[in-house]
Amino acid sequence: MIPGIKNIRVNKVYTLVGGQMLQIHREDDRLFINMPLNHDFADEVIVMEYQGTLPDYSLSNPVTVSAQYADNRIDAVFAKTSGNATIKSFTYSHYFGDWKHTTCVTGLKDSTDAVKFNLYIDSPGDYQVQLDYQCGKESAMQQGCVIVDGKNFYFRILQTADFDKHAPMQFIRQMVATISVTGAGNYKIVIKPLQNGKDLFNLKALYILPVH
């Protein structure tokens, strides 16, 4: 699936080696390429001939979530923040001279702060929502809320360890909701504190896992 081709005319799609023509169809601004089941495309180069100008990639585009993958990871850089929430790079070391950099959403302090992820989910079904975050002692056990398609899912924050730039940053993946998707399409996942308080957590990534 290739997103963002609304104003592009696609002439043909084929394999670079052998020139095998591939069937395609369009849905809105997405192009779907049908891969034959009897061919291994693991190391195949696919060529698309088109007319028009492809837009530059934007972090604001919906991130594709597929039921074909056991894990769908959406990093903090794809988040849209509001209120006090910001996207920040944390620098820390595993040992002297070995510096690491991790981008997180931080600053979720009260109920007016929020982080939003725009997703395109390609298949109906049930999905687990997991949050990968770091949380210090003072922020632990606060309540958060995940909002999906108008439904609220509540959870409590678990303690990992206080942030120390001279020590590894410790994260936990917590399952916070199971959602049901009725059809392929665009979805928004919003995360926010339930009450005013301290920083909720430092969110590294959102995970969407299909439930089979």
How does this model look, in words?
This protein is mainly β and about 210 residues long. It has 2 domains: about 10-50, no CATH class; about 65-210, Galactose-binding domain-like (Jelly Rolls, Sandwich). The chain has no helices and 16 strands. The protein has strands spanning about 10-15, 25, 30-35, 45-50, 65, 70-75, 80, 85-95, 100-105, 115-120, 125-135, 145-150, 150-155, 170-180, 185-195, 200-210. A hairpin with a 5-residue loop joins strand 8 and strand 9 (about 100-105). The model has no long low-confidence stretch (mean pLDDT about 90).
Low-confidence stretches: none
Whole-number total of structural domains: 2
Assign a percent range to the helix content: under 10%
Mean pLDDT: 91
CATH topology name of the largest domain? Jelly Rolls
User: Which value, in Å, is the CA radius of gyration?
Assistant: 20 Å
Number of E-type strands: 16
Name of the CATH architecture of the largest domain: Sandwich
Distance between the termini: 22 Å
